[in-house]
Amino acid sequence: MKKLVCYILLGMMSGSVHSQDLEFTQFYSNPIYLNPALAGTNQCPRFAMNYRNQWPSLTGSYVSYAAAYDNYFENINGGIGILAVHDVQAKTINSSQLGVMYSYHIQLNRKWTWLLGAKANYWQKFLDWDKLTFGDMIDPRRGFIYQTGDVPRGGSRGFFDASAGTVLFNKNFNVGFAAHHLNRPNESMIVGESKLPMRFTGHMSAYIALGQKSQYKNKTVIMPSVIYTYQNGFQQLNLGTYVKYGAFTVGTWLRNQDAFILTIGVDTKKFKIGYSYDVTVSKLNNGVSGGAHEISLGFNLNCTNRPATFRTISCPSF
Q1: pTM of the entire structure?
Q2: Which of these, 103, 102, 150, lies nearest to 130 by C-alpha position?
Q3: In the chain, count of helices (H) and strands (E)?
């Protein structure tokens, strides 16, 4: 398995194949990672943090972190967001990015609001050559015992990229689209060129409240959602539903031919915490990979001024 991971990494670096972007299972726990147009949709200052450990049973697992802040500013009629992401791939490739985004909010009529967002992002990628193994290091009987004759070439790369997105929503429904890596920067960490492929994401969710006339304070809410992603020939369809009762949320998702996802969370409006587990259903299988664990935290601060006309989007919490 270790050799398999190394071959995959070498293919990514040489440009013979292209890498795909990191994706968090709790899509809406860090909304501005999903779509820059969602910056400022909470109105008040919002902080989000994510941790993901994918395939922990393998030697080369993927561990990812994200932290975000966004807020709505009435004087610019939109939201500002800051996003930082760090990803460690098989303990060999480290990738960090820092992005700044702006979302312009347009009230089309009494029911509908349109958001237009853009993001500028800086990446820094680093390859640890000491973690790689090559064919000339192998003895047919004793395995990896020789020093390689391969000479390190490069090892790091920094670059900018740009993204844009849009969202249309009303009280009970929202639909959005985002396009990432519009300028297709060179992400190769060795000699040569490897263009970062554009990634396109479409997302849609509904907010269906049950028992509106109930005498109880807590109402049950169902939030069906769809997320579709395309990047460099790779397609991914996520179908899911959340059920919310009071501060508690449970959800299930199916990622086509890849994973079945279970999510639980608590959202008190000021603080939220969520946990999800991906059960691998692909040929890799869950027993070999260990699935994927993900934890999210969120904090909402009080607003100093609340515009009377501001509309909060009804997105899922996790």
Answers
A1: 0.84
A2: 150
A3: 3, 17
Which residues is 164 bridged to in the sheet? 118, 179
pLDDT tens by residue, 185-232? 988 888 778 898 999 999 999 999 887 655 556 688 999 999 999 998
**Residue closest to 45 by CA, chosen among 75, 72, 77, 74:** 72
Whether 19 contacts 9, CB under 8 Å: no
Which residue ranges make up each domain of the chain? Answer: 2-300
Cβ burial 210-230 (10 Å sphere, 16+ → b, else e): eeeeeeeeeeebebebebbbe
Can you tell me whether residue 28 is helix, strand or coil? coil
- 8 Å CB contact between 190 and 154: yes
Query: 4 or 44: whose pLDDT is higher?
Result: 44
CATH superfamily of 2-300: monomeric porin ompg (2.40.160.40)
Give the list of residues 6+ apart from residue 5 with CB closer than 8 angstroms, or none: 58, 59, 60, 90, 92
